Structure of Uma2 family endonuclease:
Amino acid sequence: MTYTPTKLLTVDSFIEEYGAQTRYELADGELIDMEPTGPHETVAGKLTSKLNIKIDQQQLPWVIPTRAIVRPFANVATARRPDVVVLDELALVQEPLWQREPVITLASSIKLVVEVVSSNWETDYARKVEEYSLLGITEYWIVDFLGLGGIAFIGRPKQPTITVCQLVDDEYEQRQFRLGERIVSQALPEIKLRLDDVLPR
């Protein structure tokens, strides 16, 4: 992940200039080039496919958009692009910007958000945990398929891990799942998914 030295942007100017360029996020007015790798995109793509299959099987009114932006705070120039975000299509009527642009501002619209860890692991494990919990997103997965996160987050020895964060009393309770272990999700309790199922071949 590279921090691009530019003038500070507002969320509106970020959307206008970079809304169609999915490799960029905004954090405190600073443009961030997320520089996704091929393996990173493979994992995100496989996750999207697996989640879509389960959503279809359960006939849920949920959708996984390809370019949605999550705006966690109204008064802070931050706009996130989760690798995967599962939205409640029925709740989108309440979103003030949705009819004009794919911007999500309400936690009630979001069923699940997923970040696939790359070189910016500190952001996924710390800053986004805080942002997504403050917004009130009930479930957040951190998919660390390379085991890059710090020992404080994924333990020792460092290994590929999915951390499932579930909101309890405005804070996330976190549970780690390693290779071979079935993920436990409140958003999709019937899903049979392991980290092994989404790794690059």
